[in-house]
Amino acid sequence: MNDRYSSAQILLHWLSALLVICTLSLPYAQDWLADWLGGTGGVFTLHKSLGLTILLVTSLRLLVRARHGAPQLLADDARWQRTAAKLAHAALYVLLLSMPLSGLLFGKRPLELFWLLTIDPLAVSDTTRALARQYHLTAKYLLFALILGHAGMALWHHYRLRDGVLRAMLPRRS
């Protein structure tokens, strides 16, 4: 039984974490970053570009996970914990895939992907745009809660249970 995630899984996990933190922070830091990024439009160009990068990285993560699986880190008598962890991870993956897609759906202007490539807005009804926008803004709070819970449980396993769950997702020390 493997007690660690693969190197690719670890890299993609921490890359995802960095991208999500940056993407979620950008709208809150727009006053500070607007001058540096050419105005508030530049802040949202970066926000949307990072969001699409999250979509790509999450898709890649799912492919790598399908190939490598996940280590069984919890004891057999902790079935409820395994179930809760699987549900929380599934919810995180759903949000990491659906939030960039909902962002694409409600955008009315062309998206400048990292100022290199223009993606035209999708042709959808105003009702669909409104629903996508509401989903995007509401899902943000669910994502905040899941991230806090995910990090909190990792720390609880590491410091309270000392069971190696967090170490399984940390790079190996040389």
From TrEMBL:
<keyword id="KW-0349">Heme</keyword>
<feature type="domain" description="Cytochrome b561 bacterial/Ni-hydrogenase">
    <location>
        <begin position="4"/>
        <end position="171"/>
    </location>
</feature>
<dbReference type="GO" id="GO:0046872">
    <property type="term" value="F:metal ion binding"/>
</dbReference>
<feature type="transmembrane region" description="Helical">
    <location>
        <begin position="87"/>
        <end position="107"/>
    </location>
</feature>
<dbReference type="InterPro" id="IPR052168">
    <property type="entry name" value="Cytochrome_b561_oxidase"/>
</dbReference>
<keyword id="KW-1003">Cell membrane</keyword>
<keyword id="KW-0812">Transmembrane</keyword>
<keyword id="KW-0249">Electron transport</keyword>
<keyword id="KW-1133">Transmembrane helix</keyword>
<keyword id="KW-0813">Transport</keyword>
<dbReference type="InterPro" id="IPR016174">
    <property type="entry name" value="Di-haem_cyt_TM"/>
</dbReference>
<keyword id="KW-0479">Metal-binding</keyword>
<feature type="transmembrane region" description="Helical">
    <location>
        <begin position="141"/>
        <end position="159"/>
    </location>
</feature>
<comment type="similarity">
    <text>Belongs to the cytochrome b561 family.</text>
</comment>
<keyword id="KW-0408">Iron</keyword>
<dbReference type="GO" id="GO:0020037">
    <property type="term" value="F:heme binding"/>
</dbReference>
<dbReference type="GO" id="GO:0022904">
    <property type="term" value="P:respiratory electron transport chain"/>
</dbReference>
<dbReference type="GO" id="GO:0005886">
    <property type="term" value="C:plasma membrane"/>
</dbReference>
<feature type="transmembrane region" description="Helical">
    <location>
        <begin position="49"/>
        <end position="66"/>
    </location>
</feature>
<dbReference type="Pfam" id="PF01292">
    <property type="entry name" value="Ni_hydr_CYTB"/>
</dbReference>
<protein>
    <submittedName>
        <fullName>Cytochrome b561</fullName>
    </submittedName>
</protein>
<keyword id="KW-0472">Membrane</keyword>
<feature type="transmembrane region" description="Helical">
    <location>
        <begin position="12"/>
        <end position="29"/>
    </location>
</feature>
<dbReference type="InterPro" id="IPR011577">
    <property type="entry name" value="Cyt_b561_bac/Ni-Hgenase"/>
</dbReference>
<dbReference type="GO" id="GO:0009055">
    <property type="term" value="F:electron transfer activity"/>
</dbReference>
